[in-house]
Amino acid sequence: MNLGLRKTQSTIIIIGLSILALVAHINGYNFAYLNGKEITGKIVKVADGDTLTLLHNGENLKIRFYGIDAPESQQSFGKESKNNLLKLCPLNSTAKIKIKDKDKYQRIVGIVFCNNVDVNAKQVEDGYAWAYREYSLAYLHLEIQARAKSKGLWSEENPIKPSNFRKL
């Protein structure tokens, strides 16, 4: 192979890799690479019972809890769900996130741990979130137990799933 052809191929490869790096930078974290990884940071905001903002390495990251769906803020038990989360993970406390995915809103989807407690599980166990069956069955047994004990939102006769509430 002649030297001119090698230089051309090398240039094309470098340009291609540069474009890939730029696209990855524009899209933020490489979530395929981070899947299963853990990050730690400080909780700076709690939006509702299944979403918080984590300060990690100087960047605010929106975190959506994996496998659960908490009531919307305007929904029955929405405030209680958020308050329970704040009790489990107070503002300015440290949280560890086991990354599972990225959602359509570019939020990190993960399992949240505060004080070594699986907060996703605790929200369901306390009756402040549904097990989000469309994505995982991991917390379904906790939902069944909370229902049986009429805990939290299960004290209502017919609580509306957040996914249905969002369609109203």
UniProtKB/TrEMBL annotation:
Keyword Transmembrane helix: yes
Gene3D superfamilies: 2.40.50.90
UniProt xrefs under InterPro entries: SNase_OB-fold_sf, Staphylococal_nuclease_OB-fold
Membrane-spanning ranges: 12-32
Domain TNase-like: 37-156
Superkingdom of origin: Bacteria
GO terms assigned for molecular function: endonuclease activity; hydrolase activity
Keywords recorded for this protein, A-Z: Endonuclease, Hydrolase, Membrane, Nuclease, Transmembrane, Transmembrane helix
Protein name: Thermonuclease family protein
The species this protein was found in: Helicobacter magdeburgensis
Lineage of the organism: Bacteria, Pseudomonadati, Campylobacterota, Epsilonproteobacteria, Campylobacterales
